[in-house]
Amino acid sequence: MDSISIMRNVKDPSETFLPNGMSSFKEAPKSAIGILGSGDFAKSLAIRFIRYGYSVVIGSRNPKRAVGFFPPLADIVHQEDAVMKTNLIFVALHREHYTSLWDLKHLLVGKILVDVSNNMRINQYPEANAEYLASLFPDSTVVKGFNVISAWTLQFGPKDANRQIYICSNVVEARQQIIELTRQLDFIPIDMGTLDSAKEIENMPL
After folding, report:
1. CA dist., res. 79 & res. 95, Å (int)
2. Strands 164-167 and 188-191
3. Which of 98, 61, 100, 93 shows the shortest CA–CA distance to 77?
4. Please, what is the end-to-end C-alpha distance for the chain in angstroms?
5. Which tens digits make up the pLDDT trace of 105-163?
6. What whole-number distance in Å separates Cα of residue 147 and Cα of residue 166?
7. Strand 75-78 to strand 4-5: parallel, antiparallel, or no bridges (unpaired)?
8. Burial class (CB in 10 A: 0-12, 13-18, 19+), 60
9. pLDDT tens-digit profile of 84-95?
10. pTM attached to this predicted model
11. In whole angstroms, what is the distance from residue 70 CA to residue 145 CA?
């Protein structure tokens, strides 16, 4: 079985199909994935995506310095350019750096943001990181996922015990898109329903 659903209520009032009355997400080539961040996890995501045939656009505050860190096939650009080039964006930043994206808010409207962050301890903040990100960018759609696997697993492949990726979002279409991406990357997606499951997911690696 490729996908697992845990205790989710399909009639949850917080669950929607598209944000703010939109009729559809902005269409983009399926092979284009953006990554904001230039740390080890961002690098591992890029390696995994490229290995499975996706084009990757890395958004960095210092592209020239980041070039040597990422695979040659990755497109390394300024954060603003990465956001403009892609509609599915992995936010590989620590929570305290989310506000550094504030100037890009107008460019992030209608885009899917995948929050991959973790914390240092259980229940470190009153709300989940993904919920905080969603509050900062209400016109974007936030999906929580990919935080329970390590950078090593992304680069070198999962073993049976760590193939599962837990995913949640208030927007069904976005959640299903990340579930399908997870399968294509040879992981097992676990549908955790709406974004109020994000704190549970963020506590899992701790």
Report:
1. 17
2. parallel
3. 61
4. 27
5. 999 999 999 999 999 899 899 999 999 999 999 999 999 999 999 998 898 876 655 78
6. 8
7. unpaired
8. buried
9. 999 999 999 999
10. 0.84
11. 22
